[in-house]
Write a structure and sequence with these properties.
CATH class: Alpha Beta
Structural class: alpha/beta
Strand content: 15-25%
Bound molecules: S-adenosylmethionine
CATH topology: Rossmann fold
Number of helices: 6
Distance between the termini: 42 Å
Order of helices and strands: HHEHEHEEHEHEE
Largest sheet: 7 strands, mixed
Helix content: 25-40%
Length: 193
C-alpha cells in the first residue's frame, strides 16, 4: 500500500497521524543521528512507523497501540509495505509494556496527558546518545490560548501539556530542545550525562 493511501485512509476515518512537518523533522533526526532502534508510543495505523522504517533497512521499530482495530489496520499496512521484519507492532496499553531493551529514539505520540509519566518511565530505556521526542506540545495552538476551544476535556488536556512543557523547562535532569514552530510543537529530550 502506498504511503499516500494510508494518509488518505487516516483522513477519511479520523485517525490522528503526524503532521508532515513534524514527521520530516523526525526523519531528518533519524538520518542525522544514525538512529537504528526505535520505540514508538502510539502506532495508530502504522503511518509514522512505516515512514521511519522506510529510511533504512537496518532500522527496527517497536510500536505500541492500545486500540485493537487500529492495531489490525497497522499490521495490514506494515505487511503490505513489506516491512514486517523491521516493524514490530504490539496491541498493548503503554502502561503494561515493560522492556529492558535500549532505544536510540523513543518517539512519544500517544496519550498527551501522560507525557510526564512516559518521560520518567522510559528514560531508563534510552541508549547512551538516545533521546525521546514528544509531539503535539502546542496542540494546535490551544495550549497557549485556551479560548480557542470550548471543550472542557480539551482544556484540561492542554493544561496538562502546558504543565509538562513547564516541567521540561524547569528540570535539571534533562537536555531539552523545544521546537514550537515545527509541526504541532516538538521537544527533543535526552538525559544529562
Ligand atoms: C496520534 S496517534 C499516533 C499516530 C502515529 N504515531 C502516526 O503518526 O502515524 C496516537 C495513538 O496512540 C494510541 N494510544 C493512546 N493511549 C495509548 C496507550 N495508553 N497505550 C497505547 N496506545 C495508546 C491511540 O489509540 C492513537 O492511535
Amino acid at each position: 500500500m502506498e504511503i499516500n493511501k494510508i494518509k488518505e485512509y487516516a483522513k477519511k476515518n479520523n485517525v490522528p497521524i503526524m503532521m508532515d512537518e513534524g514527521l520530516q523533522f523526525i526523519l531528518e533526526y533519524i538520518k542525522n543521528n544514525e538512529v537504528l532502534n526505535i520505540l514508538e508510543l502510539g502506532t495508530a495505523i502504522g503511518y509514522s512507523s512505516i515512514c521511519m522504517a522506510n529510511l533504512n533497512k537496518n532500522i527496527k521499530v517497536t510500536t505500541l497501540e492500545i486500540d485493537y482495530d487500529r492495531y489490525k489496520v497497522a499490521l495490514e499496512n506494515i505487511n503490505q509495505a513489506g516491512l514486517a521484519s523491521q516493524i514490530e507492532p504490539f496491541n498493548i496499553n503503554i502502561d503494561d509494556y515493560e522492556t529492558n531493551e535500549y532505544f536510540d529514539l523513543i518517539f512519544v505520540d500517544a496519550a498527551k496527558s501522560q507525557y510526564g509519566k512516559y518521560l520518567e518511565r522510559f528514560t531508563k530505556n534510552l541508549s547512551i546518545n538516545g533521546c525521546m521526542i514528544f509531539d503535539n506540545l502546542m496542540f494546535h495552538g490551544i495550549v497557549d490560548n485556551l479560548s480557542l476551544t470550548r471543550s472542557r476535556s480539551t482544556r484540561q488536556l492542554c493544561e496538562k501539556i502546558f504543565k509538562f512543557r513547564e516541567s521540561l523547562i524547569e528540570n535539571t535532569k534533562y537536555n531539552v530542545n523545544y521546537y514550537e514552530n515545527i509541526g504541532d510543537g516538538i521537544a527533543v529530550v535526552s538525559v544529562k550525562n
